[in-house]
């Protein structure tokens, strides 16, 4: 078996393990720790997840390059629909939406990073939305939502930085068949202080995740406040219809 095949199989294995772990964590939280779960039918649950996933998948297509990072680090606003969905339905819906939005993006645009960037978007995105969702659903208030997004931003920044340094950047280099120094060199071109993996993470990955978390948190806070009454009003009608039907 060639090294390239081994690298690909290893990457797929890590992806599956992390996806399974995130789903298990979110399911356990909802079953044992979440105070209140939505009383929606499976049809309505799936419909909401599909709608928010589609919105997130489309937003993921619009990437904004950053002046302080290499070209493969681009910010998008796809976490906003995911955050709204996970605040509304819970962590499981958030993880599913995060995963489906990446699949939608891949169907519409494909990948330019050998799927490493797409997997990174999913895994690092979950490190943002899961803490935010868990804190919010422990006590649903505007304050806990803000605290949750703040904690999520810090977790995403920490996890994203370590994950990039330890796994994603080396795997990106291996799958593309290029030296890791070449990737660092792409960072050096935009910031002379980037001279190795550590400084690439410090001067590019850390501010990237902080900026993403802050922007997504602010916009989600503004939008969810307006969307939430509409969603909950719809809930009342669906529950009432379900009870009459039953």
Topology overview:
Layout: H1 3-32, H2 42-59, E1 64-65, E2 74-75, H3 79-89, H4 91-109, H5 116-138, H6 142-176, H7 180-188, H8 197-245
Antiparallel strand pairs: 1-2
N-C termini distance = 58 Å
Global mean pLDDT: 91
Low-confidence segments: 239-244
Strand order of the largest sheet: 1-2
Multimeric state: single chain
Measured as a percent range, the helix fraction is over 70%
Q: Structural class of the helices, strands and pairings?
A: mainly alpha
Biggest beta sheet attributes = 2 strands, antiparallel
In DSSP terms, counting alpha (H) and pi (I) runs of 4 or more, how many helices? 8
In one word, what is the shape?
globular
Number of strands: 2
What's a concise summary of this model?
Helix content is 79%, strand content 2%. By secondary structure, it is mainly α.
Folded structure, characterized:
The chain is mainly α and 246 residues long. The chain has helices spanning 3-32, 42-59, 79-89, 91-109, 116-138, 142-176, 180-188, 197-245, and strands at residues 64-65, 74-75. A two-stranded antiparallel sheet has the order 1-2. Helix 4 runs antiparallel to helix 5 (116-138). The N and C termini lie far apart (58 Å).
What key attributes describe this structure?
246 residues; mainly alpha; two-stranded antiparallel sheet; 8 helices; 2 strands; 2% strand
């Amino acid at each position: 078996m060639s090294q390239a095949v081994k690298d690909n199989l290893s990457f797929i294995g890590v992806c599956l393990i992390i996806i399974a772990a995130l789903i298990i964590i979110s399911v356990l939280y909802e079953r044992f720790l979440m105070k209140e779960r939505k009383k929606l039918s499976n049809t309505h649950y799936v419909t909401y997840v599909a709608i928010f996933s589609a919105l997130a998948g489309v937003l993921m297509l619009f990437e904004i390059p950053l002046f302080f990072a290499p070209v493969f680090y681009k910010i998008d606003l796809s976490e906003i629909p995911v955050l709204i969905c996970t605040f509304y339905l819970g962590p499981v819906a958030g993880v599913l939406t995060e995963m489906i939005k990446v699949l939608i993006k891949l169907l519409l645009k494909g990948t330019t990073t050998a799927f490493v960037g797409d997997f990174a978007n999913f895994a690092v995105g979950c490190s943002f939305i899961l803490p935010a969702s868990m804190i919010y659903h422990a006590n649903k208030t505007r304050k806990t939502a803000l605290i949750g997004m703040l904690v999520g931003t810090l977790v995403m920044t920490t996890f994203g930085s370590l994950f990039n340094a330890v796994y994603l950047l080396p795997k990106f280099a291996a799958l593309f068949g290029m030296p890791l120094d070449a990737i660092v060199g792409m960072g050096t071109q935009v910031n002379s202080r980037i001279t190795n993996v550590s400084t690439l993470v410090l001067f590019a990955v850390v501010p990237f995740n902080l900026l993403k978390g802050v922007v997504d948190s602010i916009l989600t806070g503004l939008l969810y406040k307006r969307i939430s009454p509409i969603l909950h009003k719809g809930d009342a009608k669906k529950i009432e219809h379900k009870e009459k039907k039953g």
